[in-house]
Amino acid sequence: xxxxxxxxxxxxxxxxxxxxxxxxxxxxxxxxxxxxxxxxxxxxxxxxxxxxxxxxxxxxxxxxxxxxxxxxxxxxxxxxxxxxxxxxxxxxxxxxxxxxxxxxxxxxxxxxxxxxxxxxxxxxxxxxxxxxxxxxxxxxxxxxxxxxxxxxxxxxxxxxxxxxxxxxxxxxxxxxxxxxxxxxxxxxxxxxxxxxxxxx
Length: 200
What we know:
200 residues, 71% helix, 8 helices, mainly alpha
């Protein structure tokens, strides 16, 4: 098997891919959070829509979306493979364990947290990304398609979506899951990639 193939099949190779794609996705999250913070401008969503328009119309950003989705798919696939591998390595749980002494509960629950995040991601993309890119905001029930600047009114879509309390609950649970997922994932990525140091 080639070296590239080993990266996908060996345990350390899977962890390297998880680490690299994880760091990449964390960088995306930082940009995503910055843009979403524009909703706090008291201008009826004009600043937020301006940023959203730039992100959807810039060809470099659109090309980057392909890389982003590839990284996300690789992260999900390798995460599932690692979870299955770990389950096979210990098919029968010990009758008495002291897991808390060896690892945090969220470190042992990455499969569950990752599944919750995957469900959230599907809902999130269907509510915003698919509507913006494919079905068209002008077809969204009860939402004005364009703002006063002629940009797609994602701000009002967001306002409409979060009128549903079930969606709000899902997002809160997803953000809690993401927090713990990152707590484990960030530290694990640095350890796997050899970026740990005694000073930091």
